[in-house]
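Note to self: keep these together.
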Amino acid sequence: MEGVACASFTSSASKSLSFSSLSQSSIITLRQNYHNNTLKSKSPRKLVIRASSGSSSGSVVTLLDYGAGNVRSVRNAIRYLGYEIEDVRTPKDILNADRLIFPGVGAFASAMDVLTKTGMAEALCTYIENDRPFLGICLGLQLLFESSEENGPVNGLGLIPGVVGRFNSLNGFRVPHIGWNALQIAKDSEILDDIGDRHVYFVHSYRAMPSNDNKEWVSSTCNYGDDFIASIRRGNVHAVQFHPEKSGDVGLSVLRRFLNPKSQGSKKPTQGKASKLAKRVIACLDVRTNDKGDLVVTKGDQYDVREQTKENEVRNLGKPVELAGQYYKDGADEVSFLNITGFRDFPLGDLPMLQVLRHTSENVFVPLTVGGGIRDFTDANGRYYSSLEVASEYFRSGADKISIGSDAVYAAEEYIKTKVKTGKSSLEQISKVYGNQAVVVSIDPRRVYVQGPNDVQFKTIRVPKPGPNGEEYAWYQCTFKWLYVPKVNGGREGRSIGAYELAKVVEELGAGEILLNCIDCDGQGKGFDIDLIKLISDAVSIPVIASSGAGAVEHFSEVFMKTNASAALAAGIFHRKEVPIQSVKAHLLKEGIEVRI
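Structure:
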């Protein structure tokens, strides 16, 4: 399917809406109800190549934010570098911009729908064709191509020859492509000058491939099964598939180079040894209010977060914003917040947690995940809020990914029963609008021993050590925490579904990643449950994050060497400074495991 020539958008622009006239719910509706663009195709027009825009001395950057996903991080990165932001509200704002950044987030089709209905598509084409300073990020790169296979085929802006297609998971590579990967520089790119051999952060399921037709555009590639386009440059027009605002100091250097091409980094780039996708080390912060009403980071032993003292107070391991900032400086590849005492009857009323996200994203430029309370609900006034609206508020507050727990269990149980995808579960709704790479499903299983594999209907494993009654097999029963019954079995209920079965179903329903906990190992410091992690990581084609049980650096190398886990998460050992993040990474490097440094 050929792409739509930019001239084809003129009729839409003449009837365009301004961004300011669209409410968030309107934008969500536009994105959900997108139908394939059927405008007549024309060949892309030639771009005018101008001289470098390096002489521009203004401190204002124009940002094209069409209301999807986490653009706050891009805003914070721009402000961190000392620039002011002017938002696009009408197509004219694009045409008048000195420098334009387009951080595309979400799904290709819904983004094109919003751009077309608001008249921004034609203005974007005119701006880029005139070789004005432009930086597209992630989807902001993909939309420049002729079309995409995502929920399509769907027409793009048609500026660059090529079709955006999905990664092939049949060759053993996990989709989405999530994590820190290496670039192969193809030509002078200007904005990539300070990267060196260091990793940058990717999170996407679709990519554009280099070809003879688009080779004059390609400035770098990345290998993930095949070489795909990681960045393009032609004159003053740049776009990157990775997220500079989530790539730490390396990513900030990319933004700095675009904003001021003649600038030099404040220090000489650190030379790395990036060659492929790195294993990720994630710091997790369990956040809740203590008995005094203060928001604190805590950590439980097998999910019990109270001290075993007479006072029985909530264990306080620090303030969430400060700890997240420290872990970023220490080299954490991601920071994950678990809101374990959210306003369960009114998630959007949980202002302290939203503020944590907002403040953290001001100075932490790696991915942020948040979980807890993301579901449909009705407030005290009888107003209904969908899980999509709840997730949208978390994204706007600084989250890059959201984590769903009990709601995913309910959705999986219903699907197993009916074999019907309703599209109404939080998992399905959010992944449809924001893409499956934005949705993590948290699984909390416990080991249940049985005498033989036929004793239960769920997937079993043969255990290396017999159970308490000599059992040679076990299955992993999924659990979730009761929202309103905190003291019954630790507030946790076992469900009639195994971790293996749940993982397979949530992948089919739209999950992009699995956070795999283990109740038996949590807080024990004796290592991850290798049997469980191997079982699940071998069963699905999406990335799996190993969690629960880390107590030493050797536990991280063990889980990466013995399973197909893409990342390993820890909490207590980092909070208590028992095992520093840098020590974990130094050990992994010594063992020949690629990590970001």
